[in-house]
Amino acid sequence: MARAAKVLPAPAKTQGFVQVVKGVYAYIGGNGATNFGLALTEDRPVIIDNDVRVRKPFLAGMRSLTRKMPGLVLNTHHNFDHTSDNGFYHGHGAVSFGCELAAEEMEREEKAGVWVKQMVGRGPKVDHLVGKLHIAPPMVTFEEMITVRYGGRAFQMIYIDHCHTLGDTVVWMPEERVLFSGDLLTHRTLPVNRLGNFANWIAALDVLDMFPVRRIVPGHGPLPPAGKGIIKENRDCLLRLRERAQAALRKAKAPEKAAQLVQMPEYRRWFRYGNVGVNALKMAQELKGKRK
């Protein structure tokens, strides 16, 4: 009889701004909610990602570190919880950057009428924004990579692949050796894959492992310890999911039925444990497609 997998440690319940390295901060959403970045510069600060739903607490925390509004906004991907407050910062003079695919995905969701509606019921409330809040795509776009030098710091935005979304990008600060991974990495928080590609995602973790990182700021979950341990944790999680989806497909041929057989009990203490089902279905659908 196979031994039950050991239950993995619960994540820290951190929330708010924490210093990553000198002058560089992560805003931790708490309970697995979205994280953002803030880098102080000789000019105005630079922020990585944003969400209209947490504008007030983010600005309150930022103002305890600087009285200046951001000069640059860097988007790691198109999702609402990473770009929905672009327009607010544009109105305060910020210039935003993101890959072209992220801009196209924002436009697709706006055209489909789901840009705000997809967030209804997921908290915090957005009902009052339906039909009123529209996309504000990145003002400067790129395809593979762009280096932005601003206020004495360098930010390299690197398109990785179609993993969590079509336009997954990381923000690398080479001098500080800090990597903002967007949702390519989460810390003790289960990811979610509705629009992505698990095969690419697993392969992309090898790419992230090549960065000589000092610290990594994940898209969700508390700030992990220094080093690359978070990459191994994410890889192990996705490989276990793939292995269990493969086993389930041998018992139940239909992905929908196979997904119901997939269990990940060792992750039950992690944030967003409820994502197991949707991830198992997506993985089973991908694996089924490969076998055809």
Q: Which outline best applies?
A: globular
Q: Total helix count?
A: 8
CATH superfamily heading: Ribonuclease Z/Hydroxyacylglutathione hydrolase-like
CA-to-CA gap between the ends? 32 Å
* Radius of gyration over C-alpha positions, nearest whole angstrom: 19 Å
Question: What is the helix fraction of residues, given as a range?
Answer: 25-40%
Biggest sheet descriptor: 7 strands, mixed
CATH architectural name: 4-Layer Sandwich
Assembly annotation: single chain
State the domain count: 1
Spatial strand order of the main sheet: 1-2-3-4-5-6-7
CATH C-level category: Alpha Beta
The whole-number mean of residue pLDDT values reads: 96
Number of strands: 12
Q: Give helix and strand order, one letter per element, not per position.
A: EEEEHEHHEHEEEEEHEHHH
What share of the residues does DSSP label as strand, in percent? Answer: 15-25%
CATH topology: Metallo-beta-lactamase, Chain A
Low-pLDDT segments, ≥5 res: none
